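Exercise 7b. Backbone tokens:
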């Protein structure tokens, strides 16, 4: 997708990866950018507006754990812009001590946001189609025992997004789906990890975690935006240490028909 002249909604745009992604997106001469987040970052907004005077940039307050907040934000954005072409679901929390909140933000919020966005993007409902990008994690590709709750939520994001990319759905709605799975990235999400693990006792997994190489958020952002431009419907992309790899997930079960 050529992003020039497009309307983009970015959930979690003030986060560690989110801010770098917004900066990268604004280099594409967007028509408009709506940032959905819990708390406004006026300094970042002012900087983006000054650097991209040709792009309408605005903030919508959203508590991703509240369905009514999500729906209200999309409604207000649709009324303001007329339509949106791209949605990035980038809100995230990694803290297994907060079980319900981890599931609400990382999985349920993505699902509710996706379904709300489709009400305006679905061609069968008068929309123009478009692209929805859901940010999962490498923890959404394989079991990550140190953060079992987070891993479960992100695995759900990966499977949900792949399901939404079904060709039958795409033919109906005109909306394509891409799953992004970043590797370890230098953001506050990884700070003080020993207080966020599934269990409180120390394990060798924690020692290994501290030694894992991390990519820069700007490298992750660059590859994420390139994926928005180039990836095909249904792609699952791992963004690791500045590189992008498309992951092929096999079908392990096929229904036996009568």
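Sequence design result:
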């Amino acid at each position: 997708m050529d992003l020039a002249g497009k309307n983009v909604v970015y959930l979690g745009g003030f986060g560690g990866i989110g801010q770098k992604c917004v900066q990268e997106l604004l280099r594409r001469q967007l028509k408009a950018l709506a940032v959905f987040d819990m708390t406004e970052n006026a300094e970042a907004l002012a900087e983006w507006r000054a650097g991209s005077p040709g792009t309408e940039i605005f903030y919508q307050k959203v508590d991703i754990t509240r369905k009514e907040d999500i729906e209200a934000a999309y409604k207000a954005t649709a009324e303001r812009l007329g339509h949106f072409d791209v949605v990035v679901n980038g809100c995230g929390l990694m803290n297994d001590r907060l079980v319900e909140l981890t599931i609400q933000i990382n999985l349920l919020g993505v699902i509710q946001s996706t379904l709300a966005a489709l009400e305006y993007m679905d061609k069968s409902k008068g929309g123009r189609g478009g692209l929805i990008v859901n940010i999962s994690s490498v923890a959404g590709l394989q079991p990550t025992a140190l953060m079992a709750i987070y891993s479960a939520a992100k695995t759900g994001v990966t499977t949900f997004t792949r399901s939404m990319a079904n060709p039958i759905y795409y033919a109906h709605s005109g909306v394509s789906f891409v799953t992004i799975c970043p590797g370890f990235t230098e953001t506050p999400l990884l700070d003080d990890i020993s207080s966020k693990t599934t269990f409180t006792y120390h394990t060798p997994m924690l020692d290994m975690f501290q030694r894992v190489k991390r990519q820069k958020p700007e490298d992750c952002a660059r590859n994420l935006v390139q994926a928005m431009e180039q990836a095909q419907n249904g792609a699952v992309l791992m963004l690791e240490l500045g590189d992008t790899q498309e992951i092929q997930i096999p079908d392990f079960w096929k229904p036996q028909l009568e």
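Instructor comment: The first helix runs from residue 16 to 26. The mean pLDDT is 96.
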